C-alpha cells in the first residue's frame, strides 16, 4: 500500500471547513468526485462504525478511529459492503484492511490548510490521484462560498 497526501488551502475558518466535510448534504457534494450519489451512514462519533456507501449498495465499512472536532478525523477501513451488507474479510480484503484515511485542518489567519492522507492499494492509485483533488476543490468552493 502507498500513502497519498493531498493538500488544499481554503479561505474559511476551520469550523466551516469541518462542517462542509462532514455535514450530510455537503459531504454528498464533495464525495461525488469519487462516486456520484455516495453517502455515509454513521453517528459520526469516535469509535463508531461508519459505512461509506454508493447508491447501489456497495461500499466500505470502517471505524472512526479518532475525531477531534474542527481539527482531525481518522477512519480505519475494515472491509467491503455489497448489497448493503458487510462482507467477511477475505484474502483480497486482507491486502488493505486496516488502511487509514485522515483529514487534518490547520488554521492559519483567515485560511485553513486541509491535508488528507489515504492508504491506497496499487490498482486504485491513479483513481485516487484524480478524484481526491477534485473532491477537495469542491470542499474549497463550498467553504469559500459567501452565501
Question: What does this protein look like?
Answer:
The protein is globular, with a radius of gyration of 15 Å. It has helices at residues 14-22, 24-31, 91-94, 125-144, and strands spanning 2-10, 39-41, 49-53, 59-68, 72-82, 85-86, 100-108, 111-120. The N and C termini lie far apart (41 Å). Strands 1, 2, 3, 4, 5, 6, 7 and 8 form an eight-stranded antiparallel beta sheet that branches. The protein is 28% helix and 40% strand. The mean pLDDT is 95. A hairpin with a 3-residue loop joins strand 4 and strand 5 (72-82). The protein is built from four helices and eight strands. With 147 residues, it is an alpha+beta fold.
What's the helix and strand layout?
Layout: E1 2-10, H1 14-22, H2 24-31, E2 39-41, E3 49-53, E4 59-68, E5 72-82, E6 85-86, H3 91-94, E7 100-108, E8 111-120, H4 125-144
Antiparallel strand pairs: 1-8, 2-3, 3-4, 4-5, 5-6, 5-7, 7-8
Which key terms come to mind for this protein?
single chain, 147 residues, alpha+beta, 4 helices
Fraction of residues in H or I helices? 25-40%
Classify the beta-strand content into a percent band. 35-45%
Write the element-wise H/E pattern from the N-terminal end onward. EHHEEEEEHEEH
Give the overall silhouette. globular
The class by helix and strand makeup works out as: alpha+beta
Number of strands: 8
| Count of helical regions | 4
Q: In angstroms, what is the radius of gyration?
A: 15 Å
Low-confidence segments: none
Distance between the termini: 41 Å
Mean pLDDT: 95
How would a crystallographer describe the biggest sheet? 8 strands, antiparallel
